[in-house]
Amino acid sequence: MASGRGRLLLLALACLAALAEQPQLRFKPTPVPAPVRLFTESELARYSGQEEGQPIYMAVKGVVFDVTSGKEFYGKGAPYNALVGKDSTRGVAKMSLAPEDLTHDITGLTEEELKSLDDIFNNVYKAKYPIVGYTSQRILNEDGSPNQNFKPEDQPHFNIRDEF
């Protein structure tokens, strides 16, 4: 009996040694988009780059981007810091840092400004920075009801009925 146990132990050790020599299998999980996060104006204002170590967020066209990786542009004291912590769609479209342009309102913009807005939105913000959520103006109608036309850029299978 003792030799049977000994052989079994040797066999188990040999198996473990063989497994240890095999290259490790590594599975890369499929990235899952973060859930849609809704930002109110006051919540978005908390991510203005004024506090060290806190993410820096800004919104363009109601889409909230994490621009922390561009801290040298958007951080405290940086040239474009006025754009962060809010929806600065109009300012981006007009390439303006004037306080009256730091709003989501695009009323009265020219065709050229609207084209510029789309180009910057797609080729700079969507191409460079992760989407972390949406502003309440983008997802909700003025009466607070869900905007049925809302389609998030980063979640192609999103259905607004699942959210409300």
Reported for the largest beta sheet, the result is: 4 strands, mixed
> How many strand elements?
4
> What's the helix-strand series?
HEHEEHHHEHH
Number of helices: 7
What are the segments in which pLDDT stays under 50 over at least 5 consecutive residues? none
Query: What is the global morphology?
Result: elongated
Report the mean per-residue pLDDT as an integer: 82
Structural class estimated from helices and strands:
alpha+beta
Fraction in beta strands: 5-15%
Kindly report how far apart the N and C termini lie: 67 Å
Secondary structure: helix percent = 25-40%
Query: Cα-atom Rg, whole angstroms?
Result: 25 Å
Strand order of the largest sheet: 1-4-3-2
Task: Give me the secondary-structure topology.
Elements: H1 2-21, E1 38-39, H2 41-45, E2 57-60, E3 63-66, H3 71-74, H4 89-94, H5 111-128, E4 131-135, H6 136-139, H7 160-163
Parallel strand pairs: 1-4
Antiparallel strand pairs: 2-3, 3-4
Description:
- The chain is an alpha+beta fold.
- 37% of the residues lie in helices and 9% in strands.
- It has seven helices and four strands; from the N terminus they run H-E-H-E-E-H-H-H-E-H-H.
- It has a four-stranded mixed sheet.
- It starts with a helix and ends with a helix.
